[in-house]
Amino acid sequence: MLSTRKSNWGRWGESDELGALNHLTPERVLDALRLPKTGKTYSLGIPIQRSGVPNLDYRGTPQRLTMINHEDEAMARANGGAPGVGANEDQLIMPSHTSTHMDALCHVYSDNKIYNGYPADEVTPYSGAAKCSIDKVGGVVGRGVLIDVAASKGVDQLEPGYVVTAADLQKALDDQGIELRTGDLVLIRTGWLEDYLANQGEMMPQPGIGLEAATFLAEKDVALVGSDNTAVESIPFDQNVYLGGHIVLLVENGIYLLENVNLAELAADRCYEFLLTIGALKITGATASPVTPVAIG
Amino acid sequence: MLSTRKSNWGRWGESDELGALNHLTPERVLDALRLPKTGKTYSLGIPIQRSGVPNLDYRGTPQRLTMINHEDEAMARANGGAPGVGANEDQLIMPSHTSTHMDALCHVYSDNKIYNGYPADEVTPYSGAAKCSIDKVGGVVGRGVLIDVAASKGVDQLEPGYVVTAADLQKALDDQGIELRTGDLVLIRTGWLEDYLANQGEMMPQPGIGLEAATFLAEKDVALVGSDNTAVESIPFDQNVYLGGHIVLLVENGIYLLENVNLAELAADRCYEFLLTIGALKITGATASPVTPVAIG
Amino acid sequence: MLSTRKSNWGRWGESDELGALNHLTPERVLDALRLPKTGKTYSLGIPIQRSGVPNLDYRGTPQRLTMINHEDEAMARANGGAPGVGANEDQLIMPSHTSTHMDALCHVYSDNKIYNGYPADEVTPYSGAAKCSIDKVGGVVGRGVLIDVAASKGVDQLEPGYVVTAADLQKALDDQGIELRTGDLVLIRTGWLEDYLANQGEMMPQPGIGLEAATFLAEKDVALVGSDNTAVESIPFDQNVYLGGHIVLLVENGIYLLENVNLAELAADRCYEFLLTIGALKITGATASPVTPVAIG
Amino acid sequence: MLSTRKSNWGRWGESDELGALNHLTPERVLDALRLPKTGKTYSLGIPIQRSGVPNLDYRGTPQRLTMINHEDEAMARANGGAPGVGANEDQLIMPSHTSTHMDALCHVYSDNKIYNGYPADEVTPYSGAAKCSIDKVGGVVGRGVLIDVAASKGVDQLEPGYVVTAADLQKALDDQGIELRTGDLVLIRTGWLEDYLANQGEMMPQPGIGLEAATFLAEKDVALVGSDNTAVESIPFDQNVYLGGHIVLLVENGIYLLENVNLAELAADRCYEFLLTIGALKITGATASPVTPVAIG
Question: What PANTHER family does the database record attribute to this sequence (chains A, B, C, D) (predicted)?
Fold first, then answer.
């Protein structure tokens, strides 16, 4: 165990594949529905495109290719289409971990095990993950909480590589007058993504949470942690523990991660509590899904 | 014009690319937030996978490929990973119009024009759609209404090829004691998808709405029409008008379409009014996005 | 061992990854250069396209997508292109084992080992095959020999599922007045592919060689065996040994396989001896390559 | 016309799609078969892989993904495979213009026309090129000639951006004691690719032929021009004419281009005349094909 607390393995049964999303009971959903005050809809996704967004080289460039357009109108005509009538369609090639995406619990393993002790070798090339794949998740609805660490520190963005501490999180929560609750969907703002999108600077290093902050969040029994950076955790990794934040949250505690989340507008509106919904694509066997999280303030 | 009513072109300005989603004002969103009674979350997506779901041949099979698993742990080790630690990741190849998906307003054109009169030839191979692409949409939140035509007619599924009429819709609404309102996100149940998923029968023909029903919905000023079939409209097309339902709703009225929607659970619960949220992926220039719509009952 | 003969493991050294292509010495190449009599060039590949050719469902449909055409001329213009000047380019998605293709020695394993005893688990998702991948092959040049079994039996095509025997091969060779030599690149005609391309019938079953014929070819020390069918060997497999022909040739003897080869024109010309050249794509780590073999008669 | 000579449009008929490959008569092929002296086989392709080779960003990274390996052995077992028996297969995603590749005559257009005057707008997203696509080519066999400009100038590689002149070509030919003949497959060595592969320097600028050299080659009635660089022609383009070399050779004269050709070994062996064979993949409608050209010295 990397975190100092008892893990969530077994907490929801030996055959559980849902992890901390088990916290999202209908009661908590009803509570969350009462949070919005303005009715303003926030779209927290960033574009999926060949460049301009944080694409990691080894994953290959996401590509949208036009499969059919008006130049193929003969296909429509052959099916009875009138002149001037047709369809436009695309073919997509993209990593599951592209742009704004939600990690499945099978994404990372430690000691050769994923969440709940399932063996790491049950992810095969053709079939993907046998356990804890993203299609087990479906729809997520709950109380969204923004923790604006950058604002709490009075900066536009945290320094590249800065390791966010538990104290940083607590101070920001105090500044905002917010308390974390069981099952919260927590979004942590570092300011990094806004700067990257605006200035197209270096991808690395990046600010993000460290091991202590990850443990702090796990102890609060949150259901999901997102951030406006590529790995939620800092890069380089805190204490040089490779994927340490992922291990504490995803592997040990079944807490989902949401990466490259666009938090600019929520922050600008000082919208710290909101209804958050996420519709992960039901890609059978996948280890993540690109998503556009939708918040209602 | 296929429909008998005035179109929505120009209604929200000459440069509008959002169409009927303009109806989704914060006030309507706040109203919709008051609908849920149970707090139950419904995930309305179907799987994205190589077979078993309605994949159209000409679009190519959606593929999830494992890009990295424990067998590539050397990559993690090279970055300082401890033995037994690593990541699982996928590469995705899929049509934008795969499984449960939301059509962008640029998806279909008629008289060489898409919604609001933009020219059809502004969709190019490399850049995609210049106007009304799916990335312009982002997050959708509103009042979801299920119109269970199959239940209203007392059948498990409508006959393959059956053309749903305006009277069918009105009768089902009456049976359910529901009225349509401006900006509604309407989901029409034919029962076809449940049968297809269960029995893997023929893809075509399919029941769906006809031209009159499409006009009826447009007159109600709904924002989106979804259905548990491949094209919302019937196949073969009503009155043999190729993509006629798409033309009435998408092209003439800027009303979005949602296809292959899983309505089984909502129907089983007789949940006819609900909060519906959709997070379309912000794929730059794309003509659709796979989605997992999330309803809260 | 499936075949009754000593395998080729170790024959060219413990670290050999080339297998029977070691037979293709410069002397044998010079001999092969003297074979052509007419100078006629034969292209032995079949099309790579979405339909009409034997595509196996589980591999996904090969797709050629236009990435850039004249509608993206703005890209050329931005780089100084004159009006009316531009480029057309594609993006390709296809299995390595598509249409006419050459199997690498790592393609099949038996007793958890590929050719020369390398462990089967050295093919990983991200890096592919560590040993005997197709990029180790490069260019193949040698004496091509057509064995027209269909013609020898006086039929257009062998019966679906027919298992070609060693005696069938010997009789056809005798009919043709040809003897096999060490290092030959042998192409066996069943007639199946011509019928399939012309009539678009059922993919399976298919005629092909059986275990005895495979052993016969291995004993002749040929370097490659191709056929006008999907697996060189018959489907269903001879004696129900799954991939038995692959095991005898590829695994035990390091003899390459060439599948879906178009032999119609060679057969029509009764061209039984020829120079054969194959340029396998140097796809790092791949288990096969689509190819267009070129014969000169 | 960019070149000062009459173009080849119409030379082989109004409906010709083959261009200068029409020169490759059986007689010329028989002549070429007499050239090899050593029987040594040269593989002129470079690897297709995610990095390390000259991949242009806008085309996306070529990806080889393992589709099936031993971890999916259950699939083999379900088909009757014995324990320890299975197959390894890949899925490929790559531009048609990747690594070593052959341009189809439809690749570039000028004055809105491709070779032989076919309209540029006959390349559509779904179907690709109606005319002069790479699948019309198939197998190429002829006299290969290496023109080692770098060696002729006594340098390892020409300066980045250097524009090779007609005089440079003639001097190198004279140094080598070689004359060009009708139908030759000419490979021009700049040394750039060897340096790039070894040192992973900057992709641009690159040495290559200029407009005058292109015209010189067209006047010699060669069938194909290849080079050890990305565009055959220099980058930046000679006289700032965007794709000028492509226009002279490909568009105006139907002379094929072969790019990123590995000429190191031929040059080291001073092998200036050889049999050259190229098997372009028969990708229906494609604008190019990755190839591994095979030379026999």
Answer: CYCLASE (PTHR34861:SF10), PTHR34861
Q: Give the integer Cα–Cα distance in Å for D55 and C90.
A: 14
Among C75, C93, C111, residue at a domain's last position: C93
For C165-223, write each residue's pLDDT tens digit.
999 999 999 999 999 999 999 999 999 999 999 999 999 999 999 999 999 999 999 99
The letter for the amino acid at C48 is I
Whether the per-residue pLDDT at C2 is higher than 90: the answer is no
Within-domain flag for B7: no
User: What's the pLDDT score for residue A2?
Assistant: 79
Residue A225 lies in a domain: yes
**Domain range for residue A164?**
19-56+95-296
What pLDDT shows up at residue D17?
Answer: 98
A84 lies in the same domain as A109: no
Q: Would you call A119 helix, strand, or coil by DSSP?
A: strand
Same domain? For B140 and B77 the reply is no
Closest CB to A45: pick one of B100, B128, B281.
B281
Find the closest chain B residue to D90 by CA distance: B65
Residue B187 has pLDDT above 90, yes or no: yes
Whether residue B5 lies inside any domain: the answer is no
| DSSP 8-state secondary structure symbol assigned to residue D46 | -
Q: What is the CATH number of the domain that holds B229?
A: 3.50.30.50
Chain A residues whose CB is inside 8 A of the C59 CB are: none
- Tens digits of residue pLDDT in B49-78: 999 999 999 999 999 999 999 999 999 999
Cβ neighbours of residue A181 closer than 8 Å, sequence gap 6 or more: A143, A220
Q: Are residues C67 and C212 in the same domain?
A: no
Provide the number of structural domains found in chain A.
Answer: 2
**pLDDT score at A138:** 83
Q: Which residue, A71, A93, A115, sits at the end of a domain?
A: A93
Same domain, D218 and D191: yes
Do D122 and D168 fall into the same domain?
Answer: yes
> Does one domain contain both C139 and C269?
yes
Across residues B84-109, what is the average pLDDT? 98
- Token pair, residue A136, equals 């087990």
**Within a domain: D13:** no
CA triplet D75, D81, D84: central angle to 5 degrees? 90
pLDDT at residue D2 tops 90 = no
Which of A137, A266, A282 is the mutation pick for testing B, counting most B CBs within 10 A? A282
Selected residue of C50, C58, C63, C126 to mutate for chain B interface (largest B Cβ count, 10 A): C126
- Which chain A residues contact residue D58 at CB under 8 A? 50
CB contact under 8 A, D294 and C111: no
Confidence tier at D4 by pLDDT (50, 70, 90): low
Quick one: which of B115, B122, B118 has its CA closest to B22? B115
**Burial state string for B208-244 with b = 16 or more CB within 10 A and e = fewer than 16:** bbbbbbbbbbbebbbbbbbbbbbbbbbbbbbeebbbb
- Closest CB to B287 among A89, A109, A120: A89
The stretch B129-142 carries a mean pLDDT of 96
Q: Which residues in chain B are closer than 8 Å to D125, comparing Cβ atoms?
A: 125
Across the beta sheet with B89-95, the strand order is A63-68, A89-95, B89-95, B63-68
C218-239 pLDDT tens trace: 999 999 999 999 999 999 999 9
CB-CB under 8 Å, C60 with B93: yes
| Host H or E run for residue A273 | strand A273-279
The token pair that represents A22 in the structure block = 């088990």
- Residues C75 and C141 grouped into a single domain: no
**Chain B residues closer than 8 Å to C126 by CB:** 67-68, 72, 75
Distance from CA of D231 to the nearest CA of B (A): 20
Per-residue pLDDT at B96: 98
Do A94 and B92 make contact, defined as CB atoms within 8 angstroms? yes
Q: Which residues from chain D sit within 8 angstroms of residue C183, using beta carbons?
A: none
The set of chains that have 3 or more CB pairs under 8 A with D is: A, B, C
Please check whether residues A83 and A108 belong to one and the same domain.
Answer: no
